[in-house]
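Methods — Computational structure assignment.
A single polypeptide chain was analysed. Its primary sequence is given first, followed by the predicted tertiary structure written as structure tokens.
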Amino acid sequence: KGLNLHFDVAPDVPMDLRGDPLRIQQVLINLIGNAIKFTEKGDVNVTIEKLADGKNIKFTVSDTGIGLTKDDMSKIFQSFTQSDSSTTRRFGGTGLGLSICKNFVEKMGGSIGVDSNPRKGSSFYFILPLVPAEKNTRSSIIASGITEDHFKLTYEGKKILVAEDNSINREVIGGILESIGFSVKYAGNGNEVIKMVESENFDLVLMDVQMPQMDGLEATRIIRTKLQQNIPIVATTAYATTEDVAACMSAGMNGYIKKPINPEKLFDTLGNLLKTSEKTDNKNIKPLKNTMDTVLLNLDGIDVESALRRMGGNKDLLKRIILEFCNTFEDAAEKLEHLISSGDSKNAQLLLHSIRGAGGNIGAIALYTIATDVEMNLKEGKNADAQLGSFYKELSKILKNKDILLRDDKNRNYHPATTLDSTTINHHINRLYELLQGRRFEALSAFDELDNMIGNLIPQEMDKLNKALRNYDFSKAKEELDQITKKLGELEKNGGKC
């Protein structure tokens, strides 16, 4: 529009302040967006200053736009309010954004207002009680690179609930969180979240917005209103438009993280909400190891470097998740084609949503991008035939990696149970059972260790246990493990070498 946008931060404003960065960001985006929308020529100025009381910071967004009358100013922060209908027709919008801004500011303990004159511009401002924060060493740790052992931040003993219905996303998020000391439990829909929050104490909830039965927004509203709990809740969402974020904040969430998960953003968000101020000794941070190997380098359609960065350099986790992706979506092309041809656009969008979310996590960047385009076209009622060909081709490329990964599995050094005594096997079974009891992500790795020992003896039983684990059905997994224990007892009794 040819406008000048200026930013002026007073020199006495501290660079590190304790507050809610997400809500502050959304208020500023809304106010600046309105200023640009309602200004045809001139300037938009953003100033940040410390008030004389030393306890409050004032943010001001001023413009040279159409301005407001006194009557307009008295009701501008009400929902669905603009100065008159001609303004709506001319500039668009309903004024809902300013009521959300008012809500956000008041929730942060502040106040919001406006000074204006018709045709002379407006100055919207909000004042917040922000205090200087201790400088955190997290940024320097992140800048040094993600290590295979991760950052080793002091999250030991803290419990986090991951609400996510996509098993691949659960594995990625769970692996990241447990690698830095969190105790992690999982829920697959909003109803499960409500039950678990009601019966257990968690330090934080990572809440997927789109879940079956009950979505994350509704679950958050129930936690805030009916359960009256102030537990920090962070949205995980594939969409991060202003409207999406505003919906999350209005429901009572404390922040959001865009999928696919960026570990640096995740750690920063968790650190802010959990008020971690512990010092991390840089001497304990191991240098980033060479995370590539021949198997990973031979994978097609995968940005291995970005995927490993997302998973903290854990090569085995990446291989396992790519293999799970291939198993989960091996017939996705046929399913999608059937859904589209039968006019079931809603379920076609859900399938594409799952594929692109999981694809983003494993580093399938091209697949993620194309799936996003197809999903958006279907959502808007457009023809997606032009993109479907590329989508099917890219999906097929990813699925062909399954053979490479299975050959890698076969070439690993296994330790058959015939060379081990029952004491060793029982130790691993007991450990796996404890992890299942706690609904711990580490149960997947514990299963792999046990499978290496006894998978050749009771393959059918181990396959059933594996299926239950991959579906995160911990109750079923415990039942299958009980059956395995009985089967091994029978083998030993009948002279089996284990």
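Note: DSSP finds 22 helices and twelve strands in the chain.
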